[in-house]
Amino acid sequence: MDENKNKSLVVGITGASGSIYGIKLIETLLGLGITVHLVISNAGWRVIKEELGWEISDRQTVLREHFQHFPGNYIYHPVGDIGASIASGSFLVEGMVIMPCSMGTLSSIANGASDNLMTRAADVMLKESRPLVLVPRETPLHAIHLENMLKLARLGVRMIPAMPAFYFGPRNIDDLVAFLVGKVLDNLKIEHALFTRWGDHSEQPGE
């Protein structure tokens, strides 16, 4: 954990279904001692309320209730605060993850429309050549969705769609969520033990 104490990441949660992914990511990062700069869109708050049952009338309080017991620190930035620290390239962070990422947010990033703090922070990652990971959650996908993802992938953005895997023998939804969060952390080169990797339980010395 000591090696993570000076690390910081931006995490965005949008209005796509799957807010549980973003919450698990934040919990995991904080558990590792990493500082999280958190941005949640207005639609993201709505989905958190609908999917997780959080009482969101006092946003600062509900975040404190859920995250204050972890060793890492979090800083909540309102999505309309375009003057926040993470809106500037001179503010150093290791990278940014938007999980889940709506197609509207993805489109704004792909087309350089920095109309709120979420998309501005993502634009900063692009212009400063810092890691940017997007976790799109939509189905089916039409051509515009795919074209926007291709445009960003060609710029080096990591696309990790919210697609579950089953080779590791998941027992419940929590296992599937942990797997996807683990894949995000793999792409950020952050060590974790969220799922059993292929071959870890089947290959023995001498076989």
Automatic annotation (TrEMBL):
FMN binds at G15, A16, S17, S41, S102, M103, G104, T105, R137. It holds the Pfam family Flavoprotein. Transmembrane segments: none annotated. InterPro entries: Flavin_trans-like, Flavoprotein, UbiX-like. Residues 7-188 form the Flavoprotein domain. The gene is ubiX. Flavin prenyltransferase that catalyzes the synthesis of the prenylated FMN cofactor (prenyl-FMN) for 4-hydroxy-3-polyprenylbenzoic acid decarboxylase UbiD. The prenyltransferase is metal-independent and links a dimethylallyl moiety from dimethylallyl monophosphate (DMAP) to the flavin N5 and C6 atoms of FMN. It comes from Fontibacillus phaseoli. This is Flavin prenyltransferase UbiX. It catalyses: dimethylallyl phosphate + FMNH2 = prenylated FMNH2 + phosphate. GO terms for molecular function: carboxy-lyase activity; flavin prenyltransferase activity. Dimethylallyl phosphate binds at Y167, K183. Its EC number is 2.5.1.129. Keywords: Flavoprotein, FMN, Prenyltransferase, Transferase. Belongs to the UbiX/PAD1 family.
